[in-house]
Amino acid sequence: MSKRNDAIRIYEVPTYKQIFPYIMPKRCDSLVYQNMVLDLTNAVAFIKQNKRPDGSTYRIFELFIAALMRTISLRPELNRFVANYKYWQRTELSVNFIVKEDYKDDAPEHSMPLYFTPEMTLPEISKIIDDAIIAQREPANENFTDKAILFFMGFPNWFIKMLVGLAGFLDRKGNAPKALRDADGLHTTIFISNMGSIGLGGGSPHHHLYEWGTTSLFATMGILRRVHKTVGDVKTHSDTMEVGFTVDERITDGFYFTKSIKLLQDLLNEPVLLTMKPTLPPPPLTKKEYKRKRKASKLR
Known about the structure:
Layout lengths: L6 E3 L5 H4 L1 H4 L7 E9 L1 H9 L10 H15 L5 E4 L2 E5 L2 E8 L8 E8 L5 H15 L7 H9 L4 H16 L5 H7 L5 E5 L22 E15 L2 E15 L5 H16 L17 H13 L1
Parallel strand pairs: 5-7, 7-8
Antiparallel strand pairs: 1-4, 2-9, 3-4, 5-6, 8-9
């Protein structure tokens, strides 16, 4: 397998990491958990002082996703995955989260995979998210994935197992159609769970990664907290949010991930940067370019 319909092959992989897919063939073998307390003081102030182009108000959730998408665009190793013992770079920048139609126990939930381009700005990303949430919360909205699952669950177990096995085979070969990848929502760059939106206190829990699909990053958002401080006669405050990250360590190392989180914090400290187009890093080396680079290094 040298081609996929959702990614390009990565050839420039550090030597020690080339063995990782063989000694850690599953994501459950290579999970790394990291909790971060992010400072959102400037982000909250930005939201109060700025509006969308249509005059509506930004949400912290949208700004956080925009900052994550910008971070991943500038730090492309975060947009990789391992499949069939090879490293791949997504040709898509995407996020998935769950939208609940109402805050009731029995209210339906819908998976929400959304796609962006690396040069998108906060207003563009915010509009895509807002439009999608509004559409999914419409009572008359018909969710194709739910209907399809209910339809196939009416078949015998052996048929369902065969169908799921076929879908998994196509996915491993990189030939799963986009409709299938959208249906499960586990082929996106990152899966985000906004635990703060349901009032979950006590920190942000870590979520596992799924063996199914290609998603190699998971983030859980905690509650936005305001902490008041008094320094001398001056009263100040800071707004913070705890975020739990789960990462497949095969796609990147700790140093790279730590620098990426620092970049995320920098963007949240200066949200105006998210309204500007970024200067993107060069694409990964092709097989020919990688061979030429190796040959040149040997001649030195």
